[in-house]
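explain this.
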Amino acid sequence: MGRGRRRPRLAGSLSAAESPGSGAGRPFGRLSACSLVLAVAAVVWFLTELRAPWGSPALGWALTVTSACLPVLACWRASRTEGISPGAARFWFGFTLATGALLLALAVHTRDALLGPGAPTQRMSVATLGLYGVGVLVAIWTVLRLPGLRARARQDPSRFRLDSLIVLVTTALFMWHLAFRHITTWRTTAGSDVWAFLVVLIGAFVILGLTKVALTGPGPVNPRALKILSLACGVGVVEGALSPLLPDRQDLNMTLIGYPLTALALTLGAEYQRYAVRRGERVPDPRQRRFSLIPYLAVAATDGLLLCTRDGSTESLVVAVGVVALTAVVVLRQVFALRENARLLQQLDANMLELRQAQEQLAHLATHDPLTGLTNRHLFRERVARALDRCGSVTLALVDVDDFKIVNDRYGHLAGDEVLVAVARRLRECTGPDDTVARLGGDEFALLLCGVDVQTARRALGRVTAVLGRSITANGQDITVGVSIGLAEAAPGDRPSELLHRADLAMYAAKGSGKGRVMCYEPHLEREAAERDRISADLRAGLERGEFHLVYQPLVRLPDGQVMGFEALVRWRHPGRGEVPPGVFIPIAERTGLIGPLGAWILREACEQAVRWLQAQGPAPDWRIGVNISALQIQEPGFAEVLLGCLRETGLPPDRLAVEVTETALFDNDRAISELTVLTGFGVTVALDDFGTGHSSLGLLQNVPVDALKVDKSFVDDITTSSSGGVIASALIQIAEGLGLEAIAEGVETAEQAEHLYRIGYRLAQGFYFARPMDADRVSRLLADPSALVSATTGRDGGRVPRRRPSTP
């Protein structure tokens, strides 16, 4: 795993994402305001001069040249805006060069008009025409390099061709009507057929440029800035086309009104581009089809041209008006239809977006755990398979939260969910970006570690267990949990299921070794698992074939050895294996769920046998039979009712039965405590088995309806050789006496132990010193002749008895 450095958190990412627009300001600044003032002044001066000449044209040329300086600066600033795309920067730099050339052309044109031969005049020198041509050609070349045209042509070629044809025809028509048909006038103004041809050629390039600007889809240049720029091109075309219309006013030139307006549009376009970049305005999706006004504007323009160019006859006026009216109605109908289609398409796009989002959400839910957000089992297996194909070294870890059921039972399922979320978060924090963390279900997690060998992973996961062991605050409670981790390293040719299986074996070995551990897969775990599987299968078959039987270990009274009861113990005589130890098959029965039917059979068999003993002995002494109940059994709903039903069916009095449960089964287990409360209400004795070795708590003795404590054998073994053993045994008998409980010493094997237990206050005991577990027939004989068991501490005459060999079944 080997984390090199801690990954940076994404705190403040939202504010960082919004920062581009924080200082965008207004779209149009001082340059735009100055350009607007100059344009208005130029228009006012031109109209005043056109109506009644009142002075030198130098003022008009001064306003024009001054206004021409502003778009140069505006385009330069736009090209240098921080955050602008390289394509947009190249575009605006190209227009910087174009407007610079036009500024020089205007300066030379001013000299020609005011200081040239025959001044004031409209004639232009070769230098003026050349600079105008350079400026226009640079602008057209810059426009033609925009990338959006090809994208639109590929997206909808038929529509693109039609729109191109409409723009070309409409623009060419107006250019012919306003300009090209005045070729003789141009020839007079330019002074040469060559320069007149040059003007026509430039006009052709202008037509291409307008077509490009009108049809270019979304690209690096802001669409609104591009539309403003197209207005500048249109003003320039009109200004050039109307230049020959003032042949009698040599002191005036259409440039004096046209270029200030063109400069205003250029400045506004560049300023808006700068504003859009600083604001972080996104470019529209090129896949979205926008409503196009090109065909309708073309129709309206040509209709207007038709009305303006008609002859004076009434017939032509009626026909022209009718054509225009009919065209207007058809176009209006088409506009309404297209708007409705656009609305429907927008609704369809919204529905498709919702559907796509729903599909993405479903896909995420299908591959991720809804509680923790981690990868789920299905996606995890896919990633394991991918890692086995691509990574050189793959290690898989299974992480299981220890005693998670206790967390749920004690703190509630809400707190349990919060614990799982916290564990998931800590696992993500402890792993690298190339690792995968998954929740396989319940309290089981998995880690996929790429490029890490199993020993390195084991050391790293040892630190992970320490991190996960820190307290977790859940539902207002501080909860501490541990984890058991199983590791498996991939071998060549492994499949995901095989790797998961080996990690699972290692994880269960870690839990079986005391929990809170990290264990690596070893080959012997496979053999042990196979053996457990075989025992599990035989266990199920053995229940059906009746291979189980009970033996009974007497419970005696100190010091006289009087039999006070028996503990029923299950044994399995396998036809092939022989006697299978309970320590082998009981854990397997609990893990496979077979403890339920096995425990039910033990309870019924013990009750039936006890009834047979009672029937055979008549009025019998006060003894009882004890049955061990597993934690899984007592968790089953209605356990108390099932047990009481068994007593009713077999006829065993409730006070003749003692149920023995461990402390762990009752710790923070309200359901188990309620079930035992029901049983004690009917007279069934409840004994805490192996007391002192599980979740021992004095509070448990106050909250649980307990009648007896069975002190574990580990406290009896050293009672005569260790001071601590004697202290614990003495403390437990004092607690039992103080609470009014019976104290039963388990595992007594020597006379010295029995004598010492009696001296410190124990009156009940069981163990090999008194008798080994015996079959039902020997119990019957023992009940018939109680003297068969010798007193544990004194003989018949009250003296000490020597240590003897325990009786055999």
Observations:
- Residues 314-367 form the longest helix (54 residues).
